[in-house]
């Protein structure tokens, strides 16, 4: 790569290509501090206000400038607009934000005869047709066209030669992989449509599955991975280093730069019947040996429910004690060696971590908020934290936007050996790049909780979530139906616990924890006390109400 760019030290010298040259110069003029890296250049993004450089710049094969925001995936035209540039200024006069051309993809049988056609139209429409020997027919395609991998003759040749085959999500990705010299394929219809009928053609092959960066893509890649392994394939799962998919990645990087990811194994089904008692009783004995599930944070709850199982949801009013209760649960599980992971999706991870430290050291929270911690208190916090870390490992994490799907959260925790996952809060979990609170659709909540329910067979998951604001003046414990997406919560959760306090209770530092729904236990409410003024203390003081 010709020339160099020195960070903050003078003009850019002979950057390759006029489009890239103009883009780099404008970035430097505006103070976005471009600097050379291994694959091109990186700079502060002019759109979303970077503090850490996230805008990658490179030169395309046709000489145009390529730019991609790693942090927020800011639109290319928005980036140019902030720099007062037009696409033609950077050699990209043909750049389009939408597909404005129609492209046809022909699926062939093993002998190269046309079988099916997929048409990509503007607006991401994908009509299909089948070949009847004389013409393309646009109805009953699934009935007349057998499912075949895209570019099947090339795939079969690669299997015969023992070459690597890439499986991407769509035809556009596949054609781009072929352009850079690889053998690649996909299924018609996009995510969720791969079947064993396709895998049989790749039997015994070495396959690289390229996972798209969204919930549908992660699920699709897991399904492809599982199917291929049933046909003795050696599978590596990867994802794009930049962008959403293989096509985006290959605009700036090569196939050697795909990022390997560990497969999220699809949850197996279960079946019990004749002759299965020995297997069932062995599973019971294994659970009995392990003892109760992870702690709720309160011994009284642990005794009553025998620890966490499946999904637990703490419901509370906005700005109540929900986050603190999850911190307390994290603390107790550190002491018992359950390796808790706490996802602080609402608060900064540092603040959540310091809540834990203040709780361990029993130091009033206001002292941290007002920067009033004495040196003796700081030393005590340090020593007690060191003692805590000897009890077991833990993590408090705030992933960047775009990495907050339930699959991302559980997968990361499982890969690190966590024994329980706390998520603060449910409404900030993402689906297709947007938070549940942003979607505000019960169906989206159900989709997340249903996937969490499957994961929770292996690792208990505890969410904090909100009641609707209508309960702010309530004079008794609210009910599940007053929560956001209540139908999804009632359907999927093992335990739903409410956190509530009247105005008088708050003034006397009291609150209640109540069972709003339970798969296996009667309803019960507990009286509790909190003191964040003189101490940092939460404790249950007794049973307030019980059905038995």
Q: Return the structural class.
A: alpha/beta
What's the CATH architecture name of the largest domain? 3-Layer(aba) Sandwich
Oligomer: single chain
In CATH, what is the homologous superfamily of the largest domain?
Answer: P-loop containing nucleotide triphosphate hydrolases
Number of strands: 24
Q: Quick one: CATH class of the largest domain? A: Alpha Beta
Query: N- to C-terminal separation?
Result: 75 Å
SSE blueprint and pairings:
Layout: H1 18-29, E1 35-37, E2 40-43, E3 55-59, E4 65-69, H2 76-82, E5 103-108, E6 114-120, E7 128-131, E8 136-137, H3 141-144, H4 152-161, E9 164-167, H5 171-179, E10 183-185, H6 196-199, E11 206-211, H7 215-229, E12 234-239, H8 246-250, E13 259-260, H9 277-290, H10 299-305, E14 311-316, H11 322-335, E15 340-344, H12 349-361, H13 365-369, H14 375-391, E16 395-397, H15 406-415, E17 420-424, E18 430-431, E19 434-435, H16 436-439, H17 442-455, E20 461-466, H18 486-492, E21 495-500, H19 503-507, E22 510-518, E23 524-531, E24 537-546
Helix pairs in contact: 11-12, 12-14, 17-18
């Amino acid at each position: 790569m010709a020339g160099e760019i020195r960070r903050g030290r003078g003009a850019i010298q002979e950057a390759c290509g006029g489009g890239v040259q103009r883009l780099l110069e404008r970035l430097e003029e505006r103070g976005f501090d471009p600097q050379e890296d291994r694959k091109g250049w990186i700079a502060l993004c002019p759109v979303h206000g970077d503090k850490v450089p996230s805008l990658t710049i490179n030169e395309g094969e046709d000489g145009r400038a390529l730019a991609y925001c790693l942090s927020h995936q800011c639109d290319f035209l928005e980036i140019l607009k902030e720099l007062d540039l037009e696409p033609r200024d950077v050699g990209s006069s043909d750049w389009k934000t939408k597909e404005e051309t129609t492209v046809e993809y022909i699926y062939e049988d093993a002998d190269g005869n046309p079988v099916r056609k997929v048409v990509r139209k503007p607006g991401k429409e994908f009509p299909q047709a089948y070949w009847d020997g004389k013409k393309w027919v646009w109805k009953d395609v699934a009935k007349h066209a057998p499912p075949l991998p895209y570019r099947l003759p090339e795939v079969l040749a690669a299997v015969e030669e023992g070459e690597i085959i890439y499986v991407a999500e769509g035809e556009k990705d596949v054609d781009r992989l072929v352009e850079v010299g690889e053998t690649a394929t996909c299924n018609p219809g996009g995510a969720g449509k791969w079947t064993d009928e396709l895998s049989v053609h790749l039997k015994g092959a070495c396959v690289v599955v390229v996972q798209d960066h969204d919930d549908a893509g992660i699920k699709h890649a897991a399904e492809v991975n599982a199917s291929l392994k049933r046909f003795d394939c050696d599978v590596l799962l990867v994802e794009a280093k930049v962008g959403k998919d293989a096509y985006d990645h290959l605009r700036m990087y090569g196939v050697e730069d795909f990022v390997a990811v560990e497969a999220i194994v699809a949850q197996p089904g279960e079946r019990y019947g004749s002759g299965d008692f020995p297997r069932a009783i062995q599973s019971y004995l294994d659970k009995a040996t392990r003892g109760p599930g992870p702690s709720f944070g309160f011994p009284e709850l642990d005794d009553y429910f025998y620890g966490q199982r499946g999904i637990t949801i703490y419901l509370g009013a906005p700005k109540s004690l929900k986050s603190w209760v999850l911190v307390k649960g994290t603390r107790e599980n550190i002491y018992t060696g359950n390796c808790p992971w706490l996802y602080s999706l609402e608060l900064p991870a540092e603040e959540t971590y310091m809540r834990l430290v203040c709780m361990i050291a029993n130091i009033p929270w206001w002292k941290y908020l007002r920067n009033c911690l004495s040196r003796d208190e700081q030393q005590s916090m340090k020593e007690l934290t060191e003692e805590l870390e000897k009890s077991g490992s833990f993590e408090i994490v705030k992933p960047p936007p775009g990495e907050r799907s339930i699959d991302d959260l559980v997968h990361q925790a499982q890969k690190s050996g966590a024994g329980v996952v706390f998520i603060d809060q449910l409404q900030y979990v993402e689906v297709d790049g947007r938070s549940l609170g942003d979607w505000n659709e019960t169906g989206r909540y159900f989709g997340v909780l249903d996937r969490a329910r499957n994961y929770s067979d292996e690792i208990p998951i505890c969410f904090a979530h909100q009641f609707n604001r209508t309960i702010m003046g309530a004079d008794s414990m609210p009910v599940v139906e007053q929560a956001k997406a209540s139908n999804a919560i009632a359907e999927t959760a093992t335990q739903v616990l409410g956190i509530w306090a009247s105005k008088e209770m708050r003034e006397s530092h009291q609150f209640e924890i109540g069972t709003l729904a339970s798969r296996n236990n009667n309803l019960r409410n507990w009286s509790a006390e909190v003191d964040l003024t003189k101490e940092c203390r939460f404790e249950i003081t007794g049973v307030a109400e019980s059905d038995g």
